[in-house]
Amino acid sequence: MALFSLWAWRGNFGRPPSPPPARPINPVFVEVTGAAVHPGVYEFSAPPTLLEVWRKARGPEPAPEADLKLSSGSRVDLAGDGRYTIGRMNGPRLMTLGLALDLNQATLEDLEALPGIGPALAGRIVDYRQRHGPFKNIDDLENVSGIGPKKLALMKPYLILDGQGGEPQMDTD
């Protein structure tokens, strides 16, 4: 009886556990660095404008007037005088957030964040891209020494090419 009373007292009597808070299906992540009061990674339910990101991170005044929409994985570096630069988050951060790397823009360090890729293989990918130009298809990675079908299958879900979106397509098999 004492155990039953303790259980009921804790509030579990006849009630299911509360559901987790709702999250957007495809959240948009934007990183803010530099002269912001609150730098960090912010989550949005839809692609935000630069001004929305600026205000959320409390960037310096004057705020930009641009209605520029930012895509998931963008990084905004704020200067103290109201200037800014827009780039892409680094590879490890993209991977942590479940976002894909752009194969044609990824640096050596970005590529090392991929499963099964060390410094030597990342270097061969960058060298191949510099010698032959941008990759036209992710499967072209098999032309890089050290990448066969198995390694490509490990990497492919985490890669995109310019203009193919920012979310990796994970296999559910």
Question: Care to describe what's here?
Answer:
This protein has helices at residues 2-9, 50-56, 91-96, 108-111, 119-132, 149-155; strands at 28-34, 40-44, 74-78, 84-88, 101-102, 159-160. The protein has 6 helices and 6 strands; from the N terminus they run H-E-E-H-E-E-H-E-H-H-H-E. It is α/β, with parallel strands linked by helices. The longest helix is centred in the C-terminal third of the chain and has 14 residues, at 119-132. The chain has 2 domains: 28-88, no CATH class; 91-160, Photosystem II 12 kDa extrinsic protein (DNA polymerase, domain 1). The relative contact order is 0.11. Strand 1 (28-34) and strand 2 form a beta hairpin. Mean pLDDT is 83; it is low at 164-173. A 4-stranded mixed beta sheet has the order 2-1-3-4, covered by helices on one side. A two-stranded parallel ribbon has the order 5-6. It is 27% helix and 15% strand. The termini are far apart.
Indicate the topology.
Elements: H1 2-9, E1 28-34, E2 40-44, H2 50-56, E3 74-78, E4 84-88, H3 91-96, E5 101-102, H4 108-111, H5 119-132, H6 149-155, E6 159-160
Parallel strand pairs: 1-3, 5-6
Antiparallel strand pairs: 1-2, 3-4
Tally of contiguous helical segments: 6
Whole-number total of structural domains: 2
Rg result: 22 Å
Alpha-beta content class: alpha/beta
Q: Please name the CATH topology of the largest domain.
A: DNA polymerase, domain 1
Largest β sheet strand count, sense and barrel closure: 4 strands, mixed
What is the CATH class designation of the largest domain?
Mainly Alpha
Strand content: 15-25%
Shape verdict: flat
Order of the strands making up the biggest sheet: 2-1-3-4
CATH architecture of the largest domain: Orthogonal Bundle
Number of strands: 6
Contiguous runs where pLDDT drops below 50 for at least 5 residues: 164-173
